[in-house]
C-alpha cells in the first residue's frame, strides 16, 4: 500500500499557513448592487465511461452568494454541455472509442459570473464492439438498505454479455442518478432526504450502448430526522501515539465504510480543524486502513482526532467518532 508522505511541518504551522492563505482572499462582492462575485469551483467531480462512446459526469452543487443558475461541462478545452443549476450530472455522448478525454466543470450565476474550473479528471472510453446487437442480461438480486437518513446502499448480481459489461446505470424511479463501472456490483447513493421512500433499479450497459432490461425494483425508506452521517463513516476507528527520532506521531487505524468500491481519500480533522487529506495510491485498502502522521516534539500534549471518507460520488461521508490521544 502506497501512502502520501508524512508531513514534516507541525500542525500549528500548517494551520498558520492556511490562515495566511485565506486572509489574502478578496471576499468583496463588489459595490453598487451589481453581482460581481463568481461561484466557487464545483467540487467532487467524478467521471465514468458508460460505453465506447459515452461518459457520465457528476459533481457536487457549487456555492454562490446569489445562487448558481447553471453549469458548463468542458471536454479538454471545449465546452460540450450546459445544464441548469438544479442538475449535477450529465451524459456526454458522441465520443470516440479507445480515446482518453479530460473533463472539467464550471458554475455560472445569474450575474454571468463564472467559477474557476473544477479539478480535471481523465477517463478512457473502451474499445468499440463490432456489430454487437446483443444486450447484457438483466441484473439479478437487487437489494437495498438505508445507510442513515441521507444515503442508501445498493447491491446486485453481475450481468453477463457476449462481449463485456461496460457499466451499470442506477435509476431512481425513472431518472438515472448514478453510473458505476462494469466490474462493480454495489454502490452507495447519497443526497437523499430523511424519512423519505425511494425506488431504485439497475440496468447493465455494454460498450455498444446495448442496455439490459431493468432489474426488479427495490423500495427503501431512509431514517427519519438528522444524523451525523454515521452510515457513511469509517468504523472501528482507533488512535494512538508513538515516538521516533525525537518526535511524536499519531497512528490511526479504521475499517473503510461500505460504498461498493474502494475509498481512496480521507480527510483528517485534528483538534477541531482540518489538518490534511490522506490519499492512498495504487490499490486502496478495503478491510483495514492505517496511517501515521507527525504531530510535534512536545510530550504531554492532548489531541482530538477524527476522519471522514470521500465517497465514490465525490461527496464527503460521515465523521468517525473522535478519539483523544496524549503524546509521551
UniProtKB/TrEMBL annotation:
Alphabetical list of InterPro entries matching this protein: ECM_Regulatory_Proteins, FN3_dom, FN3_sf, Ig-like_fold
Gene3D superfamilies: Immunoglobulins (2.60.40.10)
SMART domains in alphabetical order: FN3 (SM00060)
Keyword list, A-Z: Carbohydrate metabolism, Glycosidase, Hydrolase, Polysaccharide degradation, Repeat, Signal
Extent of the signal sequence: 1-21
Annotated source species: Streptomyces alfalfae
Domain Fibronectin type-III: 41-128, 138-225
Matching PANTHER family: FIBRONECTIN TYPE-III DOMAIN-CONTAINING PROTEIN (PTHR46708:SF2), TENASCIN (PTHR46708)
Stretches assigned to coiled coil: none
Gene Ontology molecular functions: hydrolase activity
PROSITE patterns: FN3, PROKAR_LIPOPROTEIN
Entry-linked SUPFAM superfamilies: Fibronectin type III
Designated name of the protein: Hydrolase
Region described as Disordered: 112-146
Amino acid at each position: 500500500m502506497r501512502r502520501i508522505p508524512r508531513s514534516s511541518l507541525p500542525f500549528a504551522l500548517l494551520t498558520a499557513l492556511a490562515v495566511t492563505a485565506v486572509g489574502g482572499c478578496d471576499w468583496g462582492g463588489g459595490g453598487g448592487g451589481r453581482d460581481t462575485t463568481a461561484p466557487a469551483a464545483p467540487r467532487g467531480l467524478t467521471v465514468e465511461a458508460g460505453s465506447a462512446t459515452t461518459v457520465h459526469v457528476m459533481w457536487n452543487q457549487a456555492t454562490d452568494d446569489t445562487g448558481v443558475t447553471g453549469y458548463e461541462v468542458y471536454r479538454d478545452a471545449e465546452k460540450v454541455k450546459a445544464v441548469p443549476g438544479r442538475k449535477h450530472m450529465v451524459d456526454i455522448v458522441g465520443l470516440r472509442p479507445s480515446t482518453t478525454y479530460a473533463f472539467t466543470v464550471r458554475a455560472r450565476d445569474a450575474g454571468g459570473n463564472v467559477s474557476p474550473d473544477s479539478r480535471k479528471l481523465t477517463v478512457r472510453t473502451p474499445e468499440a464492439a463490432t456489430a454487437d446487437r446483443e444486450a447484457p442480461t438483466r441484473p439479478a438480486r437487487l437489494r437495498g438498505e438505508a445507510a442513515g437518513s441521507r444515503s442508501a446502499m445498493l447491491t446486485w448480481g453481475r450481468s453477463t454479455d457476449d462481449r463485456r459489461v461496460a457499466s451499470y446505470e442506477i435509476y431512481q424511479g425513472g431518472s438515472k442518478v448514478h453510473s458505476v463501472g462494469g466490474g462493480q456490483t454495489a454502490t452507495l447513493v447519497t443526497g437523499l432526504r430523511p424519512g423519505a421512500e425511494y425506488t431504485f433499479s439497475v440496468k447493465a450497459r455494454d460498450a455498444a450502448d446495448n442496455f439490459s432490461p431493468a432489474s426488479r425494483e427495490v423500495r427503501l425508506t431512509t431514517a427519519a430526522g438528522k444524523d451525523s452521517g454515521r452510515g457513511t463513516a469509517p468504523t472501528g476507528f482507533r488512535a494512538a501515539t508513538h515516538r521516533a527520532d525525537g518526535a511524536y506521531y499519531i497512528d490511526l487505524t479504521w475499517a473503510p465504510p461500505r460504498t461498493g468500491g474502494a475509498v481512496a481519500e480521507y480527510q483528517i480533522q485534528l483538534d477541531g480543524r482540518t489538518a490534511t487529506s490522506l490519499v492512498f495510491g495504487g490499490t486502496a485498502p478495503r478491510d483495514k486502513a492505517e496511517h501515521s502522521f507527525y504531530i510535534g516534539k512536545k510530550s504531554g500534549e492532548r489531541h482530538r482526532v477524527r476522519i471522514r471518507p470521500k465517497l465514490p460520488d465525490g461527496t464527503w461521508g460521515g465523521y468517525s467518532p473522535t478519539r483523544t490521544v496524549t503524546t509521551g
